[in-house]
């Protein structure tokens, strides 16, 4: 099932994100997703997130699909040139994976193989364009595909709370031009900023899913403020997490914060994308408190 | 060793808005410049306020000195059309921040010594010069990922995710285009590198 069909029906689409293991056994990831994420629409599978080498997104997607979930294949431009990316897309379609999320990807120097060659032959925009070409039955070199063309729900990302919000909106427009059909955002902690962003972004007419992280501790928030692009956790949330360490550790405070953000932003977006970062078990409670 | 090739005539003509000032650089012996073709093409341009052929425009001080006596003609022009390598165009764009500075050439690399260029500007000799779409800031060298279609999600406080001491190239491009009133350049068709020409 392509998740664009749900957006078209006006549904509020909830997705979450899982990361493949650094090893050959993905059964733990699949089991957790089955236990905590089976009520939501689809599950993103990251592609060597933060440039840290792991099992590929595609084999993990296939294992989730076999377990009855709907996976979204994340595809970055960091590690593969246009030949490998197109080949991966054809492979995904042949295995029944029809939801994708196209990203440029973090730079290689951010991860655990800092000396690796950063590829970036394509970027998120030209990757979306490439997918549209394949859907028309031609590859990027202009050569016809043999047989049925693939068809994907094509997603992209945007960072609404970035300090470069104009550059982000300009890029979002280019992604729409290139064929993006839905957007997932970087984690939002400032509802007002998100709402202001959506006022501008709605001109593009594409569904946007609010990005949500359940904050685990004051330290985590401070770390994100200093190091993660486009993320800013307001001081009062940090204080709330610091005030009662036991409550924060149990996830109670974090879930409350995340649920409040979802409720405030819900009228302005078309879905929610949860980046649980290991707290998959808290997702059902978050959905309950957020009224989803 | 570099080689510069003229962009297609239609491309060059489409770049010019209003009156144009033409700047040719015949500086480095390391750069092969298409002199005759450039001359023929420049004869066909309309509304030219002035033409200067000089050398080493990649040196900002030298450039400012050489252009001193053409200040009036340059002031009158809306577009400065530069026939040089990518470094030369970037130097001119920086010296005239309020003018539309366009590249008339693509810069292609040939094996060997690359000529003496100042460090502030860098050109990877990509063979498809993009400076006309980016306000004269090279997206291949000013952006750590060499992105052609806009900013990635990694910029923090306007700085690059790879090197927090370096301003994000696409943030600079965005600001420059805004200042020039040329944000429309961001609506250009999707750009793809052609590695067979670099
Ligand atoms: S875009 Fe950059 S690398 Fe390419 S020719 Fe122009 S200045 Fe050189
Ligand atoms: S932060 Fe800016 S300069 Fe750095 S890779 Fe991203 S777009 Fe390029």
Give a description of the structure:
The complex is a heterodimer of chains A (292) and B (198). Chain A is of the alpha/beta class. Chain A has a single domain, classed as TIM Barrel. Chain A contains 12 helices and 8 strands. Chain A has an 8-stranded parallel β-barrel with strand order 1-2-3-4-5-6-7-8, surrounded by 4 helices. In chain A, helix 3 links the parallel strand 2 and strand 3 (71-76). Chain B has a single domain (3-197), classed as 3-Layer(aba) Sandwich (Rossmann fold). Chain B is globular and about 45 Å long. Chain B has a 4-stranded parallel β-sheet with strand order 4-2-5-6. A 3-stranded mixed β-sheet of chain B has the order 3-1-7, with no helix packed on it. The two termini of chain B are 13 Å apart. In chain B, strand 5 (79-83), helix 5 and strand 6 (100-103) form a beta-alpha-beta unit. The mean pLDDT of chain B is 91. The A-B interface holds A 103-104, 106-107, 109-110, 118, 120-126, 129, 140, 157-159, 162-164, 166-168, 170-171, 173-174, 177-178, 186, 227-230 and B 144-158, 161-162, 168, 170-171, 174, 178, 183, 186-187, 190-193, 195. The structure holds iron/sulfur cluster (SF4) (2 copies). Residues 143-145, 147, 151-152, 154-155, 160-162, 168-170 of chain B line the site of one iron/sulfur cluster.
């Amino acid at each position: 099932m392509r998740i664009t069909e749900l957006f078209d029906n006006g549904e509020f689409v909830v997705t979450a994100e899982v990361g493949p293991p650094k090893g050959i056994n993905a059964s733990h990831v699949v089991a957790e997703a089955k236990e905590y994420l089976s009520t939501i629409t689809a599950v993103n599978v990251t592609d060597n997130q933060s440039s840290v080498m792991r099992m590929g997104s595609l084999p993990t997607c296939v294992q989730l699909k076999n377990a009855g979930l709907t996976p979204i294949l994340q595809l970055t431009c960091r590690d593969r040139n246009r030949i490998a990316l197109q080949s991966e897309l054809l492979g995904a379609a042949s295995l029944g994976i029809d939801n994708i999320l196209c990203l440029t990807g973090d730079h290689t120097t951010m991860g655990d193989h800092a000396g690796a060659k950063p590829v970036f032959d394509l970027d998120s925009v030209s990757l979306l364009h490439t997918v549209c070409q394949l859907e028309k039955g031609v590859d990027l070199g202009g050569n016809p595909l043999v047989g049925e063309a693939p068809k994907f729900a094509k997603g992209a990302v945007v960072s609404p709370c970035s300090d470069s919000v104009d550059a982000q909106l300009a890029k979002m427009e280019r992604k729409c031009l290139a064929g993006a059909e839905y957007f997932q955002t970087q984690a939002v902690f400032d509802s007002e900023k998100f709402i202001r962003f959506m006022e501008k972004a709605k001109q593009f007419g594409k569904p946007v899913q609010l990005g949500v992280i359940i904050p685990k501790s004051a330290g985590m928030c401070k770390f994100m403020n200093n190091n993660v692009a486009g993320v800013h956790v307001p001081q009062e949330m940090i204080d709330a997490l610091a005030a009662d360490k036991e409550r924060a550790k149990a996830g109670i405070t974090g879930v409350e914060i995340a649920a409040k953000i979802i409720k405030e932003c819900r009228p302005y977006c078309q879905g929610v994308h949860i980046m649980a970062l290991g707290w998959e078990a808290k997702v059902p409670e978050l959905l309950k408190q957020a009224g989803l | 060793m570099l080689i510069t090739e003229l962009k297609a005539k239609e491309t060059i003509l489409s770049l010019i808005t209003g009156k144009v000032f033409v700047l040719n650089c015949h500086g480095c012996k390391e750069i092969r410049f298409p002199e005759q073709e450039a001359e023929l093409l420049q004869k066909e341009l309309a509304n030219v306020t002035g033409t200067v052929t000089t050398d080493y425009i990649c040196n900002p001080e030298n450039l400012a000195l050489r252009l001193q006596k053409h200040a009036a003609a340059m002031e009158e022009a809306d577009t400065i059309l530069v026939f040089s390598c990518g470094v030369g165009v970037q130097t001119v764009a920086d010296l005239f921040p309020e003018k539309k500075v366009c590249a008339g050439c693509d810069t292609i690399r040939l094996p060997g010594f690359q000529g003496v260029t100042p460090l502030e500007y860098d050109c990877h000799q990509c063979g498809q010069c993009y400076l006309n779409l980016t306000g004269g800031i090279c997206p291949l060298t000013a952006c750590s990922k060499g992105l052609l279609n806009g900013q990635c999600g990694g910029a923090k406080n306007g700085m690059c995710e790879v090197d927090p001491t370096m301003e994000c190239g696409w943030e600079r491009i965005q600001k420059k285009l805004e200042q020039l009133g040329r944000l429309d350049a961001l609506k250009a068709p999707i750009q793809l590198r052609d590695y067979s020409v670099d």
